[in-house]
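Lecture notes, unit on binding sites. The following record was shown on slide 14. It pairs a sequence with adenosine-5'-triphosphate.
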Amino acid sequence: MQLAQPQRVFFALWPDAEAAARLHALAQEQHQRMNGRVSREDSLHCTLVFIGNIDAGRLPDLQAAAAGIQLSGFRLTFDQAGCWRHNQIAYLGMRQIPEALQHLQSLLVKRLKSAGFNTEQREYRPHLTLLRKAECTGATKENPAPEPVGWAVRDFVLVRSSLSVNGSRYEQIGQWPLL
Ligand code: ATP
Ligand code: MG
């Protein structure tokens, strides 16, 4: 019998091409001050719910939990910039989490819990990682972003993360539309 490989997966919101290009340019700008490693343009994302390692056999249950969600799309704007010293991440965040995002995130968590998945206990902090191993300088509090960047969220995705020599590689393995 062949044993199923564990898969490291998470749900996320993916920027459209225009937003990803602007975010990548911003990341390169920040890199000049904070060094570290710039996120790949095609890897930029906002995690919705991190699942972690699961058995491949459980993927259909995960997909079923996501498929039951019927919510409207919304506009997402990242207007704050910050740097977390504890994990050396320079990120964009938002002053206020839109109700529609909070709602999508908590409904997904609720459905995942009902399906028996473990989810993150900490408060949801939506963010886009621009740099890893960043040298956070000065105050660590958030400041207004040099320019707000956002996109119209029309779907959410399930992503598989695998480790490669150049860091984590992501592959979308599911996509569900918002109405
Ligand atoms: P790397 O770990 O190679 O630096 P990464 O953190 O982007 O890259 P993963 O560790 O696979 O890759 O994480 C995928 C996504 O899930 C990232 O957005 C990451 O911030 C988020 N994430 C990882 N671990 C957790 C966790 N324990 N709780 C919440 N989110 C997490
Ligand atoms: Mg990680």
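Take-home: The pocket of adenosine-5'-triphosphate (ligand 1) is lined by residues 8, 10, 47, 50, 120, 132, 161, 167-168 (CB under 6 Å).
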